Each structure stands twice: as C-alpha cells, then as structure tokens.
Amino acid sequence: MAELLFEDEVFRVRGAVFEVYREMGSGFLEAVYQECLEREFQKLGIDYVAHRALNLTYKGEALNQFYRADFVCFNKIILELKVMQSIAPEHKLQLLHYLKATGLRLGLVVNFGAPGKVQIDRVVL
Questions:
Q1: Does the global pTM surpass 0.85?
Q2: Which of 24, 36, 61, 71 has the fewest CB neighbours in a 10 Å radius?
Q3: In angstroms, rounded to a whole number, what is the distance separating the alpha carbons of residues 22 and 117?
Q4: Mind telling me which Pfam families this protein's record contains (predicted)?
C-alpha cells in the first residue's frame, strides 16, 4: 500500500476538523468554522497561517492579483473551507489552482455544510 502524502500532518488536521464538527455540527457560516479551527489548531499545536495570500505570476512576473487560502497548515497543506450541500468539482479545481500557484502538493477541501457529516476531499498536485 502506497504511503499517503503528509499522512501524519493530515491525520492531525482531520482530527481538528472532526472535533470542530463534533462540537458545532453543520450549517454555520464559513467564518465560524474558520475561527473554531484556529482555536483547535492552537490547542493542538498545529502550525498554520490563516488567510494566507498566495501570490501569482505571469511569465515570471508577479501579478497584482492573488488568491487567499483559508489555511496553510505545516507550510505544506492548503485547507479550503466550504459550507455547501456537497463538494462540487469547481471547489476541487479552485484548490488545484491554489496548489499550482504555490507549488505545494496537497490540499484539503473541508465542507461543513453537508447534513449529518463533514466532508474532507484530498486534492494532490
């Protein structure tokens, strides 16, 4: 069986996500989950940057436009938070663009909006 990319770090991040979901359930605004996850990351000692700007380039030159990731954890995993009925292909595509912009290899789309569960999808570059 192939080893998963950043398995230990993803395990810790998923643990924080599940704890927030266990406490809050589904359906709050994304900003609520953002704040709850920040508190859980701090409590668990997970290295993160919230709302990190992701710079873009065109032919080697910096653009004025940039993306903003909800979280970058351990300086190697991008988290994109959603509160939707389900994770749609465009959400994964958005995260793929974030990965391309940064050169990072792994992202997680976390959806707190699905009734009765939290969804976590991996996107690998």
A1: yes
A2: 61
A3: 9
A4: PDDEXK_3
Cα(48)–Cα(38) distance, integer angstroms: 8
Can you list the domains of the chain with their CATH numbers?
Answer: 7-124 (3.90.320.10)
Angle between helices 30-44 and 7-24 (to 10 degrees): 120
Contact 83, 104 (CB under 8 A): no
Q: Specify the pLDDT at position 108.
A: 98
Please state, in angstroms and rounded to a whole number, the distance separating the CA atoms of residues 84 and 112.
7
Q: Which helix (H) or strand (E) holds 11?
A: helix 7-24
How far apart are the C-alpha atoms of 117 and 63, rounded to whole Å? 38
